[in-house]
Amino acid sequence: MAHVISDECVSCGACAATCPVSAISEGADKYVVDADTCIDCGACEGVCPTGAVKAE
């Protein structure tokens, strides 16, 4: 299961910088995870300052 980013995202980019497969990109209102690319490693979840990244 891919990770998802909730509306708590403040668009800091910490998750995107940490993703080893570049599955996270900046969306219109928040960062988004490409479910097809995500390897579910959880690296993004650990660096999010707001807790917006969760396992789906």
TrEMBL record:
It holds the Pfam family Fer4_7. Residues 1-25, 29-56 form the 4Fe-4S ferredoxin-type domain. Gene3D superfamilies: 3.30.70.20. Its cofactor is [4Fe-4S] cluster. GO terms for molecular function: 4 iron, 4 sulfur cluster binding; electron transfer activity; metal ion binding. Keywords: 4Fe-4S, Electron transport, Iron, Iron-sulfur, Metal-binding, Transport. Transmembrane segments: none annotated. One of its GO terms (cellular component) is cytoplasm. Ferredoxins are iron-sulfur proteins that transfer electrons in a wide variety of metabolic reactions. This is Ferredoxin. It comes from Candidatus Coproplasma avicola.
